[in-house]
Specification:
- 72% of the residues lie in helices and 0% in strands.
- It is mainly α and 136 residues long.
Amino acid sequence: MYKFFPKKPVRSFRDLEVYQKTLEASVLVAKNIAPKLIKLKYRFIDATVECSLLIPLQIGEAHSIRFGDHKQGILLLEHAMAGCNKMIIYLEQVKGIYGKQFNWDLIDDLISRYALVRTKIFRLEKSWQKFHEPTS
């Protein structure tokens, strides 16, 4: 028998699963991927690290402004989804360039995480679109 467990109420952006997952991924990129890329002199290291951190930043900002500027909040979620796609591209490029010099499991895990969280951000966006922009 399936038991129903209501989700924990969202009191701040830090309660959003998409924020937690993307912040976790950005820590893994900065801690485990970036140092190796620096040693290998990967050309796009700064862009990769910045992109990984920009995603949770955009989610936090979107959560803060979603009622005051509904369209901008939704747009920030769109940018976060695009950031997930960019991270997948960066990580796949690292795989293609450096081959066996990297831990495949970690790279593949991060790619899977970004693909999954992108879908969850999309669902969050759809739920936010149910809200109507406040009238002045």
